[in-house]
Amino acid sequence: MVVAAGARGVIRTPSNNSDDLLVALAQAIMFASPTLRRVTETVPRQRSTLQGMKLTERELQVLRGMSEGKSNAEIGRDLFVSEDTVKTHARRMFRKLGARDRAHAVAEAFRSGLVC
Questions:
Q1: Is the pTM of this model over 0.85?
Q2: Contact at 8 Å (CB) between 89 and 95?
Q3: What is the predicted pLDDT for the residue at 35?
Q4: pLDDT at 67
Q5: Which of 115, 104, 113, 49 has the alpha carbon at shortest distance from 90?
Q6: Local structure of residue 28 (DSSP, 8 states)
Q7: Which of 9, 44, 63, 108 counts the highest number of beta carbons within 10 A?
Q8: In the 3-class helix/strand/coil scheme, how is 29-93 assigned residue by residue?
Q9: CA 102/CA 86 separation, integer angstroms
Q10: How far apart are CA 115 and CA 106, in angstroms?
Q11: pLDDT surpasses 90 at 90
């Protein structure tokens, strides 16, 4: 019916959530615009946001220690674990956050509200 009236298509969303509508609209605009498609294909995709990230409690403790400027040894003493254990938790946390290093992980954590 709407196509017969001149519309090129219909945007359907699975719910009445306005965020879903905005995402669908943005996707439709990008699909319809060859210029935007080319630009977005050259921009590297960001890793998933931290809101849905599942860090363990221990990984969060290590991240908080890093955000306070503590060394791995200091974090280990605070948590009663070895420095190697802290490094293992940090490596796993970096992978989950998509972080390159400590500074990147801490910056992402501050941006997302994981640490204050």
A1: no
A2: no
A3: 59
A4: 94
A5: 104
A6: H
A7: 63
A8: HHHHCHHHHHHHHHCCCCCCCHHHCCCCHHHHHHHHHHHCCCCHHHHHHHHCCCHHHHHHHHHHH
A9: 12
A10: 8
A11: yes
